[in-house]
Amino acid sequence: MSDLISLERLRIRCIIGCLPEERETPQDILVSVSLETDITPAANTDDLALTIDYHALAQRLTQFAQTHHFQLIETMAEQIASLCLTSTQAKAVTIRIEKPAAINGAQYAAVQIRRSATAHS
Question: Active-site residues: which are they?
Answer without folding.
Answer: 99
